[in-house]
Amino acid sequence: MGVIIGVGSVIIMVALGEGSRRAIEQRITAMGTNLLQITYRPPPRTAGVRVSAFSKKDLQKIKDESSFALAVSGIVQSNNANVIGGDGSGQVRLQGVEPDFRIARNWNVSAGYFFDDEDMALRSTVAVLGSTTAKNLFGNADRAITQQIRIGTVYFTVIGVLESKGADMDGRDQDDIVIVPMDTAMTRINNSPYVNMILMSVIDKKYMETAQKETELLLRESRSIPDGINSDFVIMNQANMIDMASATSKTLTSLLAAIAGISLLVGGIGIMNIMLVSVTERTREIGIRMAVGGRKRDILMQFLTESVILSLMGGAIGIGMAFLASRILSASGIPTAINPLVVAVSALFAALVGVIFGYYPALKAAKLYPIDALRYE
Asked: What is the reported pTM?
C-alpha cells in the first residue's frame, strides 16, 4: 500500500503539473504567434514629457521601419461596451483593430469574412463577433451574419464570426468580443485620435529579442523620449511569457513530486519493517534451508527477491491507479499529461526501494546461524 500510494502520487502530481504547463502554454499561444504586445504606461508627470497614448504616427513608424514585423495592428479597446443584438444585449469587450490583427492573433473566421483595408479607409460600420457574443446576441452564431448590432448609438452590420479561442491566461472568455475597424472605433465610438495598444507579430521566434529592442528604439524616437528618461510604454514578449510560465510550472511540479516522493520513502520503510518481521517469523524455515545446503547468498537472494517483487507489484498497481485517476481528472476538466519517462522512473524507483530497504532484512536472514535458527521457536 505504501508503494502503491507513493508511486501513484508521484505520477499524478507530475501529470497535474505537466498538464497545467501545457494548458498555460496553449492559452498564451492562442493569443497569437511570436507576439510583441506594446501597451501604454502613463509616466509620472515630468516637465517636458508628453503624456498621451499611441498615435497613428507611432503605429505607422513601426510598420514602415521595423525589420522583423510580419503583421502590425493598433488596438482601440473598451472592456465594457454596451452592445445590443436581435435576441439579447450585454456588456462585452470591444476592440477596434486593423486587418493585420487577424494575422497577428492567428484568428480565423468560422463564418463570413474579416474586414479589409477598404473598410478601414471608409470607416465602415461593420463588425466581426466572437462566437460567445454571437450566441448571446442572436441565440445562434450562424444567424448573426448580415444582422445588425448597436454599440452606443451607432449601428454595425455583422460580417463575420470568429472561430472559438476559449479562455485566456486570466480565465476570461476570448470569444466574448466584438471587433470593428480601428478608424471607425476611433472616430465613431471613442472620439479619440489615440491607440491603446499595438500588436506586432514577429517573422520568426529567433528574432523576438532583437525585434523587441528595435521596436523600443523606434517608439522612443517617434515619441521624442530622450535618453535617460523612462519609456512611457511596456513591451511584453510572448516568448518570455511562455518561458516564465514554463519555468514556474516546472518548479511547482518538482515540488509536488518531491512531496509525493516522501510517501514512496515511507512505503520503503514499511517494506523493510515487514521483511524484518518476516525474517523473525521464518527463522526456523531459514535454519532448515541452511541445514539442507542453502548458502548465505541463497538466503540473501530469497528475501531480497521477495522485497523487490513486493515493491514492483506496488509500483505496477500504483501506475495503473495513476492512469485511472488522470483520466477521471481530465474528464472533469482538470488538465493532466502523463510523461512516459516519469512512469519509467517511478517503476525503477519502486524496484530500488525494494533493493535498498529489503537488503538489511535479507542480510540479517543470511547471517543467522543454522543451529540457532533450527532451535528457534
From this structure: 0.63
